[in-house]
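Q: what does this look like with flavin mononucleotide bound?
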Amino acid sequence: MDLSVEIAGIELDNPIMPAAGPITGNPNVIKRVAEQGVGCIVTKTVSTVAAEVAKPSVARLPSGILNCEKWAEEPPSKWIEDYYPEIVKGVEGPIIVSLGYKPDQLRELIPDVEKFADAFELSSHYLGRNPEPIREIAATATDLTDKPVLIKLSPHVPSLQEFAQAAVDGGASGIVAINSLGPGLQVDLETMDSPLGSEDGYGWLSGPPIKPIALRAVNEIYNAVDVPVIGVGGISTAKDLLEFVAAGATATQMLSAALSDGAGKYREILEDLPPELSKLGVERVKDLVGAYKKIN
Ligand SMILES: Cc1cc2nc3c(=O)[nH]c(=O)nc-3n(C[C@H](O)[C@H](O)[C@H](O)COP(=O)(O)O)c2cc1C
């Protein structure tokens, strides 16, 4: 059974990787994830300043997770001097470095971070509802580095297809979709409060409830652009992962299921993939990409 895939010239042993978040927020947790055999690592989004994150920042819902995390809570100097070198030393496979957000911030970060990255993933979570800034961040990053630049899209934009096209127009080599969905709210009726520490109590939804939206997003983007799509949102089983591949994802990411059940989730999925592929009569996972039949 062949689980290997290729993203923008980077060979991965298999199509599962962690999504940017707490599970990739320091070298120790990353080491634990890497030990599960994931195809590559994606680091927590770093920006030019440390994020101030209200606590609690993560709440478990009956199904899924609500969070008000932002980007990394350490300044970039901590990552550049300490975390990235340790991650590179401790991880064998490729490393995708997630950065945010605006062109000036990328100009400040990419030259210092480039030596640690096999590829970049740029979050567009705070860039608004107009596709032009997406084109701009892709163009800025591709001017600064020869390494592949992937753009991560959020589901609340007006047109995923236009945003994906803008990223490709700017030079992106791949699209990651989706970031968490929202904002959303959970109310504890005993306290009349939200479980999250954010000022309004609102947060972003991830995990199984967002899977249908993420699958549709991946399929829309797959139909719109000719670069690989990395699918993320609500995966917790090998079958979920294969649904993303069928909808058009070349590879996938997962976060919430590993936050809820532990990093062993990655290995569990990897072990379940070959038998699930056998059931479909597929020898190579890459042969399933876009097999979903209602292609527009
Ligand atoms: C606690 C938490 C923190 C996150 N932090 C980031 C981040 O720093 N950068 C980013 O691009 N996405 C971030 N995300 C979004 C995830 O990477 C992912 O896109 C989303 O959770 C959907 O995948 P999942 O359902 O497998 O969790 C975060 C999600 C959660 C739950």
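The first strand starts at residue 5 and ends at 7. The pocket of flavin mononucleotide is lined by residues 19-22, 44-45, 58, 65, 67, 69, 71, 98, 123, 152, 179-180, 206-207, 210, 232-235, 254-256 (CB under 6 Å).
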